[in-house]
Structure formats: structure tokens, C-alpha cells
Amino acid sequence: MDALMLARLQFAVTCLFHFIFVPLTLGLSVMVAVMETLYVRRGEEKYLRMTKFWGKLFLINFALGVVTGITMEFQFGMNWAEYSKYVGDIFGAPLAIEATVAFFLESTFIGLWVFSWEKVSKKMHATFIWLVAFGTNMSALWILLANAWMQKPVGYVLRNGRAEMSDFGALVFNPYGWLKFLHTNLSGYVIAAFFVMGISAYHLLKKNETEFFRASFRIAAVFGFISSLGVAMVGDLNGQEVARYQPAKFAAMESHWETRKGAPMALLQVPLESEERNAVELIKIPKMLSILATHDPHAEIKGLKDIPKEDRPPVTITFFSFRIMVGLGTLFILLSGIALYLSLRNRLEGKTLFLRILLYSIPLPYIAAQLGWIVAEVGRQPWIVYGLMRTKDAISRNVSAGQVLVSLLLFTFFYGILGVVDIYLMYKFGKKGPEPLSLKAEV
After folding, report:
1. Which of 72, 90, 15 is closest to 372 using CA atoms?
2. pLDDT tens for residues 391-402?
3. Which of 8, 102, 295, 297 has its CA at 20 to 30 Å from residue 93's CA atom?
4. Whole-model pTM?
5. What do you get for the CA distance between the two ends of the chain, in Å?
6. Which long-range contacts (CB under 8 A, 24 or more apart) does 289-298 make?
7. How far apart are CA 362 and CA 344, in angstroms?
């Protein structure tokens, strides 16, 4: 592989590995804040123990997420110097705000939350974790606004061979960015919900701390069902944005080759990487693709044949990633809906098979989130900034394939160690369960 492909692979590995930690941080911070708020309002011991138990898992995940995130930014200078020169005036602004405002906010109040147990009032302590949750989610907002500018450039002028910001407000209020933010954060909430439900299911199967984990499960089931529905609704709106501004990506997501009005959608088909008409298409739904793209059954949907070959993204990986992601999203609505129903009816503990399904479902939302990023980033190719700069023009001019390969291997080895540490710590403390308050357990 050449330096370009290795650099792309390196950024994909570091980004996807980092995003194992980010979504759980987004969702678990909010869930822990809800649990502590319930303790403040109701004064029940189980909510305090809940806050400390799930808070400990949150802190483990947060710490490892910070470590894996730092290395990503170095790659902009090492491997993608031409990109950095081209868009640094724009891309640097939201990244700087994320680091100096949102990240410092969450980091500061995490410290206060950890070390101020029994040193401040209950309401003040709960306020700290809500500020952590706010900072964590605002951190995601600025990162996603930066990424959204790469997907849909706004508020810029081209001057002296580079993009310069002309309207900061356009970047901040880019509709593509806000839909991406909602879709990404809600998917993080789904991950957190299934994480809590899965661990709770394990302990309910073992009949360990049943009252504690029954209550944890119910909170997660409510959180998961609402978030799963939210992901689907925002995903529909996001799909319309993609169809409007990135027709090549939308066509690749559906392996749609012929431009036509009232375009049907094939539920089962074999995607093509070329224009030959030998795809297997089964169970077509008339006009459904037009409805999904525009909510107009008669709308024209552009096919890949009418897009220059050099501007088409890889079809197969985009198509399958999108289909599997949507399928998993539908499954999450179903599972969380059943979980909520059984929990509200107090019929959960007798459903051994369902509890096992939830336990083994913990990785599935992670997979769906990773597939979503593959759709977003692979589907944008061959552009690193859509319509402005091609990925092949963004790589550093003096970097060699050998240099990138060495750093890729080192990053992979380092991240592999961190992954083992994370799984071990999560497994250890998740399996152990909550500490009794009599031991004065601190988070």
C-alpha cells in the first residue's frame, strides 16, 4: 500500500478505536446524572449506590477515551499537512473551542465530582455531574460541527489556494452539523443504555443485588427506548440532507444506479461496483427511495451512472454498512421496547432467555455506531472536503509509506494494550457489582 492508503487506514484505526469510548461517555454521563438527581430528590440509598457504581465505570471509560483522542490530532500535522494548510483557518476554530471550553469544562467538574463527596451539598454535587454531562456533549458538538463542514462546507471563501472562514455563524448553525450531532449523541445514549441493561441482566441472571439492578435496568430501558426512537427519527432527517447535498453517497448507500423519478427501494439486492446490470434485486417497494430521500413519492433520485466515475464512493462497503446499521437500529427499538414493557410489568426476572440476549447485545450498538461512521466517511470519498478537496491531495507531501506504516503499527499495538486494559477493568468492576455504603466507597 502507498502512503495515502496507509495514512487513511491509520486515521480510520485511531478514529474508530477512539469512538469505542466516546459514545459510552456521552450516554453514561447523562444516565449517572439522572441517577444522582433521583437520589437527591428521593433520598433512597439505592440511587446513591447506583450513582457510585455506574460512575466508576464512566470514569474508567472517560480516562481511556482521553488518551486515545489525543493522538488523533497529531495526524493532521504528520500525515495530512496539505489538508491542514488548506482548511486550518476553518477547521481549527471548532477544535480550539472544543479543547479550551468544552473539554476543560468536563475535566474540571469531573475532578470536583470525584473528590467532593460529603464535602458539598447533595444538590451541588449533583450539579457537578450535570455540568460534566453538558461539557461532554458540548465537546461532541464542536467536533461534529468541524466534521460537518467537511461534509457540507459553508461560510467560507477560497483565497490564495486555501479555504478561509467568512461566516463563523454559518459553521455553527450548519444544519448538517446539528443533525449529525443529534444522530451521533443519541446513538451514544443507545450504547450506554444497552451497556447498563446488559450488565444489569448479568446480575439479575445471577440473582445478585436484584433490587439494585432491577432499578438500574428500568432507567436504562426508558433511556434506551427513547434514544432508539430518536436515532431513527433523526436518521430519517439526516438521510434527506445526504440525498440533497451528497447524492453520490446516497446512491451508494442504496446501490442506486439509474436516475429516475419515483425511485423504488430494493430490500434485498447485491450491490455493484460497476455499471453492469446484473444486480440481484428482490422485494422492491415502489417509490420508497424517493420517499426516504425527499418525502415526495414522485421525486427524482440521481443514480450513480450520472455521476462521474472519479466522483463515486466505494459502493459495496457503503451499501452494506448502511443496511446493517439500519437493521441493528430497528433491533434496538424492538429490544429496548420489550425491555421497557417487561420492566414496567415487573416480569423481567423470569425471562432468562431475554436477559441473556441483552447481555450478549452489549457490543451491537458499538458496531452500529462504527458502521455509521464508515457510511459517513467512506461514502464521502473521494473528497476529504466535499466538492472542494480530494483526499489524495490532502496528504503530507514528504511523508513516506514506511514512516506511516511504522506509526500505524505502533498506534495499533498501543491501542491494543489500552483495549485489553479497558475490557479487563470494565469486566472486573462490572462483574463485581456495587459496594455497600457502609464501606464508604468512593467513586
Report:
1. 15
2. 888 888 887 888
3. 8
4. 0.89
5. 46
6. 289/254, 289/256, 289/263, 289/264, 289/265, 290/261, 290/262, 290/263, 292/236, 292/239, 292/240, 292/243, 292/265, 293/239, 293/240, 293/243, 293/250, 293/263, 294/240, 294/243, 295/240, 297/262, 298/261, 298/262
7. 21
